[in-house]
Amino acid sequence: MKELVKVAAVQTDPRIGETAANLEDILNATAEAATQGVRLIVFPECGLTGYIFISREEAMTAAETIPGPATEKITALCRQRDVYVVLGLLEKDGERLFNAAALVGPAGVIGSYRKNHLPFLGVDRFATPGDRPFRVFPTPVGNIGLFICYDIVFPESARVMTLDGADILALPTNFPQVRRETLSTHVINTRAIENRVHVIAADRVGHERGYGFAGLSKIVSATGKEVGLASPDREEIIYGEVDLEQARTKRMVITPGEYELDYIRDRRPDIYERLTDATPE
């Protein structure tokens, strides 16, 4: 039996360091998406802050705590509109700086994630590596897993959340324009297909301090079908509908009794021991 949830990815062009203006855009987009019956809305990586910071000190001036001022305002709107939001931001925790995502609902912050895999680019050069494992957060709109941008090229990230029961993987991202043909076009869909899980990828557009961003935000169903796709260069909201039951049914029957697949059951963990060995050959 289908269990349909309407979702959205918001493709933005945040202004670096201008958190008040970016938050206003986030609130306006959330309100707009809510009028379309959306229950889950995903924003880009560092959508609150911008990404290409030139020093740790500069980045810390834009960082907030979780919960904090931005999540409190988003909570109030979520309560009013009965929606759930995934927000990308910089999180400060004492003297530490994290590239983070927060999952916010009508009752407040449900959970947060700190980016585990950090490329040598933008603010990630100054961020502290994530200090928490990947987690899945149960909500009324599905079991939601969080990861950020570069995490997606490590297939273990999506797989461990799938094994923990994720229905939807929310991916706030800032894919560089030069990686559009690989990451945006292929890798997002691959993670959905190989795990039979829905993926909502919210990317940004525009240019920031000499770097261009890929756009092409997308919503990919657990079958790998693109049910929403944004342009490469415009701020916009894309919408799609995902079936939670589809993500929870890993067994695919192509020809009953003759041709069946299950990407989870058919794994062979007993021969994957190399994955637990961090020593390079």
Notes on the structure:
This protein has a single domain, classed as 4-Layer Sandwich (Nitrilase/N-carbamoyl-D-aminoacid amidohydrolase). It is built from 6 helices and 16 strands. The strands form 4 sheets. The chain has a 6-stranded mixed sheet. Helix 1 packs parallel to helix 3. The N and C termini lie far apart (48 Å). The mean pLDDT is 95.
Number of strands: 16
Helical content class: 10-25%
Individual helix count? 6
- Largest sheet entry: 6 strands, mixed
What average pLDDT do the residues reach?
Answer: 95
CATH superfamily: Carbon-nitrogen hydrolase
Q: Could you say what the CATH topology is called?
A: Nitrilase/N-carbamoyl-D-aminoacid amidohydrolase
Count of folded domains: 1
Question: Cα distance, first to last residue?
Answer: 48 Å
Q: What pattern of helices and strands is seen along the backbone? A: EHEHHEEEEEHEHEEEEEEHEE
Strand content: 25-35%
Shape: globular
Q: Unreliable runs, pLDDT <50, ≥5 residues?
A: none
CATH class: Alpha Beta
Strand order, largest beta sheet: 5-4-3-2-1-14
Query: What structural category arises from helix and sheet content?
Result: alpha/beta
